[in-house]
Amino acid sequence: MLKKIAITISCCLLTACATSPTGRSQFIYMPDTQLNQMGLQAFDNLKKEKPVSKSSQYTQFVNCIAEAITYETGGDWEVVVFEDDSLNAFALPGNKIGVHTGLIKLVDNQDQLAAVIGHEVGHVLARHSNERLSQKTAVSQGVTLISAVSAPTSALGQLAVSSLGIGAQYGIILPFSRTHESEADIIGLDLMAKAGFDPRQSINLWQKMDQQSEGQQPSEFMSTHPSHDTRIKELSEHMPQAMQFYQQTQAIGKTPRCQK
User: Which residues contact residue 64 at a Cβ distance below 8 angstroms, ignoring those fewer than 6 apart?
Assistant: First the structure.
């Protein structure tokens, strides 16, 4: 029984190997078509449940930035501005982008919003939703397999399974999510620079976000996002490469002019 399970798991691992845009090894086995369909359905539901902004100025501003960034990725993307005061934006599989009006009000210029949109598009390009779902499914199946081959009805067996569940939550799922956030930062930084936006403004954005949070951000270990200090440090380390892309776009006159 154990041998069969080991062979099954090994086969799944071998067929689920992938590489992210930054060269990181990934565990992905869900069909992208399925994730895209989930993204389309989720976006349709959001448009029904959340009010869409009636501000043509905000819509033009966001579309101008999103079009410049997604031009670098190819494909058609749908962009919607939602009337919501929270500082949020998101991108979903299936090429969908949502931006909240609260975030638009916060940013000082096109470059700062480009940093957020680039980051969110980076999640989609790196297939983070697929990887996350694959991880969760694998963890769930792992717990089930262990339960089947051990003594799940015994006190020790129940303790082992419950301990694995806690370990899976804080030892696998959350750290990978922080990895996703850091990776999306780097992908987004390069994207915005290639699109002609000043990548240095990403630092200013996260400093503003830090001030806005007023110390309310949860500890990094328990959060699915890196701390603002960590995020700024990693962006600063990658900035020289992003600046090379930015200087190249400036040399050929690729300069978006998106007015807030």
Answer: 110, 256, 257, 258, 259
Active site residue 83: no
Residue 150 lies in a domain: yes
In angstroms, the CA 208 to CA 223 distance is 19
Would 256 be classed as within a structural domain? no
Residue 195 placed within a domain: yes
Predicted confidence pLDDT, tens digits, the chain (260 residues): 445 444 444 444 445 677 878 778 887 877 888 888 888 888 998 899 899 999 999 999 999 999 999 999 988 999 999 999 998 999 999 999 999 999 999 999 999 999 999 999 999 999 888 888 777 766 565 555 445 445 545 554 454 445 445 455 445 455 558 888 899 999 999 999 999 999 999 999 988 887 876 656 555 544 566 777 888 899 999 999 999 999 999 999 999 999 98
Of 72, 120, 131, 183, catalytic: 120
Domain extent, residue 132, equals 14-251
In a domain, 48, yes or no: yes
- Residue closest to 236 by CA, chosen among 175, 174, 189, 167: 189
**Residue 159 CA: distances (Å) to CA of 112, 191, 198, 249:** 48, 47, 52, 57
Quote the Cα angle for 42-43-49, to 5°: 90
Q: What are phi and psi of 90, to 5 degrees?
A: -155, 160
Domain count of the chain? 1
